[in-house]
Amino acid sequence: MYCTDARTLPEATNKGRTNLDCMSRGGASGSSSGTGTEPIILPQYRPGIRKAKVLRYREKRKEWKFEKTIRHSSRKANAETRGRVRGRFARRT
C-alpha cells in the first residue's frame, strides 16, 4: 500500500487515511529523505461530532473484557497433563 498525501486527494478517494499513516515511512509524501519538519495534520471535527465519537468510544470501552477465557477446553486439558519445568513445557526424560 502506497502512502499518499491526504491534502491532495479528495475525501472520497482518501478512504479515511491521514498523514499519520505516512509518518512512519519517512514523511507525508512517502519520501525517505524527508527531514520530518512537515506538520502532522489531524482531522478537525465539529465539537458535536467529536463529542459523539468520544462518547461512543467510552461506551465500547466499558464492554472490553480483560479476564482470561478458555476457548478450547480440549487444548486446556492437554496442556494440564503435559510435564513442565519452571512453567514451560518440557520433554519427559
UniProtKB/TrEMBL annotation:
GO terms for biological process: regulation of flower development; regulation of photoperiodism, flowering. Residues 84-93 have a biased composition (Basic residues). GO terms for molecular function: DNA-binding transcription factor activity. Residues 50-92 form the CCT domain. It comes from Daucus carota subsp. sativus. Residues 1-41, 69-93 are annotated as: Disordered. InterPro entries: CCT_domain, CONSTANS-like. Transmembrane segments: none annotated. Residues 24-36 have a biased composition (Low complexity). The lineage of its organism: Eukaryota, Viridiplantae, Streptophyta, Embryophyta, Tracheophyta. PANTHER family: ZINC FINGER PROTEIN CONSTANS-LIKE 1, ZINC FINGER PROTEIN CONSTANS-LIKE 4. Keywords: Nucleus. It is found in: Nucleus. It comes from the Eukaryota. GO terms for cellular component: nucleus. This is CCT domain-containing protein.
